[in-house]
Write a structure and sequence with these properties.
alpha/beta, globular, Rossmann fold, 14% strand
Length: 164
Amino acid sequence: MSSIVKVDWDSKLPIYKISHLKLQNEGIKSLLIDVDGTLLSRQSKIIPINVKNWIKKSKKFFTLYLISNNPSNERIRKIAKELDIRYKSNALKPRKKITLDAISEMNEDLKNIAIIGDRILTDIIVGNRCNIQTILVKRLSKNGLPIKLNLTLILEKIISIFLK
């Protein structure tokens, strides 16, 4: 039995530096993507241009779906509309129900789906609970660059040791 906190790919990179070719080589055809921290800072309303460009290129290769714990449907709807991607807000990750709803809408084999997120205790756990691949990325700051020191992730990695 594998660990619920297992990360299939700890990229140590922001989402916009994830290789599309590597994702394709891993058999990925569909991506569930976290929003706050992964695509833009929780404090920001502006999607960084490098993230927009990565999303635009990703659409050529993958089915994309935004999945956010943010309870503000208005915030996530605006981001999803700007990127022209389906979405679910208030997903309650690591609970599975809403993530499984999104997965069923993707109409893809589980082995070909990955979730990309910046949090172990939400994104990675729900990915493992739903039997899809998990990709951990660096959290983005307000200026769209990866944060240098992510204390939340350090704490989550320590907690993960005890959850294995």
